[in-house]
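Q: Protein A?
A:
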Amino acid sequence: MRRWHGVISSISRYHSIIFLLSLTITLFLWIDRGDQSDYPKVIPHGMRLAEKSDRRILAAQLIACDTTTGGGVGNVVFELIAFQEIARKLYRSPAIYSDSSTCLEKIATFVEHMPHLVDGFLIVKRPNVRFIDELMGSAELQRRLAFSNQLLDVAKSSVYPEKIDEQTHNICVHVRRGDFMKEKFHLESEADFTVDATKYLIRKMHKRGISQVRVFILGQDAAWARQIFAKASLRRKINLTVIHSPSYLPSMIDWAFAKLYCDTTLLTASISTYGYWMGAVSRGEEVFYRTKYSKFEPDFVVNLWPDNWKPIDY
């Protein structure tokens, strides 16, 4: 472990974060070789295409290696050696994705002069990252995210101790501001969207013929939520409760509340992973989320939300 730690710690803080975030660990039970179009144009000396018999693989997108700028020979070799050492410590074979053409071309030129640089590396087809659609709602995910009876009892007694009518349709609105307000990328819950989207869901439930609707606001910004809904005069018109779970309770307590009571969940800061899992474990499994998730138009697409979740764009 010390040698592995030494490899990682010797990378600059920035590059180590980028490297580790880009690392995708995949245990391949089998490899779909596909047709000839899946094969890379270049297979560097020392590397080979993965076979079905190759079962213990660590695949990665190497940042310096796979960019046309800023990825000089020093950075690329550093990535390859560090990655190979990590894979060895995990008893796996290092692998590069077959569509990483820039990286493979760079390696091909390097091994002309360093013939053993990538000995033992494999080339694999990139897996489908939209695994979440298959996983969401599955028995396996429900098993992994199951709460203890103790936590569920605490959610009943401490989060909102009053009896909740089982005949009422509960809309749970997750809000997140706090640290997101200081972030350059993450878009926090905004007042106009939060209020308007809540009104929209109430009308939607009424159109479905659901007359008894109750709204619960969950998150760590209770004072802000009370203020915006009071300003909109919604609290006097509908059955709306702002919940602020005490900090001494377990951090996933709002998830347990959602599991018990939330029929429809609204994510007003849709990039929040806390809100994400609140929707995933919610009782009704009907989730609406804001399509706008960043403070600027990113140059990449974040597509983390399951296809059966419903986007709202205001």
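Q: Protein B?
A:
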Amino acid sequence: MQAFIVMQGRTYQQEKTAGLIWTQQRAQGQAVPPTWARIKAIQPQDILFHYVAGQIVAVSQAQTQVQTAARPAFLADVATPQVNLVRLRYYELPTPLTISAYLPQLRPLLPVKHAAFQADGSGNQGYIYPCYSLLLAQLIDLIEAQYFDAKQNEQLSLAMSAVAATEADPLVRLLVNADLINRRQISQAQQAFTAAVKQQQVLQCAICGVEQPQLLQATRLKPLKDSTPEERNIAANGVLLCANHAQLVAQGLLSFSRSGRLLIASQVGLLDQERLALTTQLRLDFQPAATPFLNWHRRFVFQR
């Protein structure tokens, strides 16, 4: 299951009524904007969040892949007689989710490049944006919390209400199922990534040498939120570390030079450097395939 954020405007109501999203067809050889082309990635059962004027107003589930179809009547001003469309089942939210109200929760989960939302919560130009697993989980949590608050069930957790509520409400049923599938996919992806890293690296923390298996974590250099699907589980994007050093790398307090030398952010004090066995003399032997991921980490994650 994948998830997407769809930026809609004046045609939202007609698109919801018709149960679809669409893009205009382009002549052969004519450039297609990436956020338009993404409609071809949508598969049946995928989840879509519909954003209009600063708010997520609906959630939908794809019923089909992209199709070439006759132009709907409400698109009379579209030049081409046929359009690309995906059939959806829309579920309007009882209370729209205002993105700007939840920026502290959402901002850390937004990709550095090609995010659906700007820093102030307004939408970026474009049409269809990917919504990767951790952002999907957060959006579901926020919508669920707001939904139950609107229903005056503030003390009722989703786990307690799932059996009763989902039988009566298709929106809740969709969110519950999507959340379960997404969490299973997160777990499976992390297991696959960890296995790939362990196959390529010595089974110890690359910085301090700790070998206790329970303390070791496969840590991404290019964060999950910024990685393409192809990059997320490959060993070259990872380094095996103990829990402490994994957090320092993830938070941008440690990084690595092009030659693999350890870089330490100025926020890490000398006493903590000693306690954590950090030294700029340490040099790791990364494979050439790790170069783009090391570059990304230094540029976008490392706090210097």
